[in-house]
Amino acid sequence: MTHQIIEESAPAKVNLYLEVTGRRPNGYHDLDSLVVFADVGERLTVEDAEDVSLKIKGPWAGALDGEADNLILKAARLLQKRMGVTQGARFTLEKHIPVAAGVGGGSADAAAALRALNRLWGLNLSEEALCKFGLELGADVPVCVRSRTSRFLGIGDEVSDGPVLPPDMGLVLINPRIAVSTKDVFSRVNIATSGTEGYPDQFGTFEGLKKWLVSRRNDLEGPAKDLAQDISTCLSQLEFHTPGSFVAMSGSGATCFALCSSIGQARNSVEKISRNFPSWWVWSGGFLP
Fold it and tell me: 258: which strand partners?
């Protein structure tokens, strides 16, 4: 039998807006969000093995030291149990984005593991089936299984294709190298009375998208700022160095972003921010199709 080695990317998730529209009796929150995926993230490799194991390397590997039950391992054990798999898998994760940053790092890793194991173990599961397994691992995992522009509703159980976005837009991501607890942020959030209305099928221009996004909210931004003052500094730096862009925080923070009309504008701003804050994690680029 041929030894298999499979690679999967785990791109960073960016919430262009994120509205908290309700809280269920079990404590879970109902959300409404437009999610895109940046052309940056982790790289996951998996190969045949007798047992399930995980090795982490890369610039952010140290941040996960001691995390014995990583979501990648949970994904593997879930599929083994539900699908009756007796094979193992040896994972190697190259970690390139910050931990607890609001860009779905752990969820994207878990989603990549599900996709990779589906191929490695020959399970032939549909994307819909993988999303259902993903929901058992976390609310962000189903949308990360898709890794394309999507609208996220409910507790992650309602994910659909998002609107068609203008081409050639640029993106800046910055993180002050601080971790923000999602649980702590949600414990401080105020529940909105309504979610997004008037959802278009596509946006023909960057200005049209920007105007629409300005009317949306990230209901987690205020609580996150209370927990980490550096988030306000990130936002002000992006507003100053990317004039005309749309600036907001992603997810529960602390990563903030600027959506720019071009990749060129995004790259120019990164150079300036990096000079002013050399310790920050700063990235610029585009979106996945």
Answer: 172, 247
Of the candidates 171, 166, 227, 213, the one whose C-alpha atom is nearest the C-alpha of residue 14 is 171
Q: Give per-residue pLDDT as tens, 41-71.
A: 999 999 999 999 999 998 877 766 555 568 9
Indicate the pairing of strand 88-94 with strand 29-49.
Answer: antiparallel
Angle of helix 127-135 relative to helix 105-120, nearest 10 degrees, comes to: 130
Rounded Cα distance between 238 and 243, Å, is: 8
- Tell me the catalytic residues: 13, 140
- Pairing state between β 170-175 and 29-49: unpaired
Measured between its terminal Cα atoms, the distance across the chain in Å is 35
| Alpha-helical segments (H) within the chain | 71-83, 105-120, 127-135, 141-146, 182-186, 206-214, 221-227, 230-241, 263-276
d(CA 164, CA 96): 28
Q: Return the domain boundaries, the chain.
A: 5-161, 170-285
CA distances from 103 to 36, 97, 237 (A): 10, 8, 19
| 5-161 CATH, one of 3.40.1370.10, 3.30.2170.10, 1.20.272.10, 3.30.230.10 | 3.30.230.10
pTM of the model: 0.94
The residue length of the chain stands at 289
**Judging by DSSP bridges, how do beta strands 150-154 and 158-161 pair with one another?**
antiparallel
**Rounded CA separation 163/242 (Å):** 24
190: which 2 tokens?
């105020």
Report which DSSP code applies to 155.
T
Reported as a single tens digit per residue, the pLDDT across 138-159 is 999 999 999 999 999 999 999 9
Give yes or no for a contact between 155 and 29, defined as CB atoms under 8 angstroms apart.
Answer: yes
Structure tokens of 79?
Answer: 């599929």
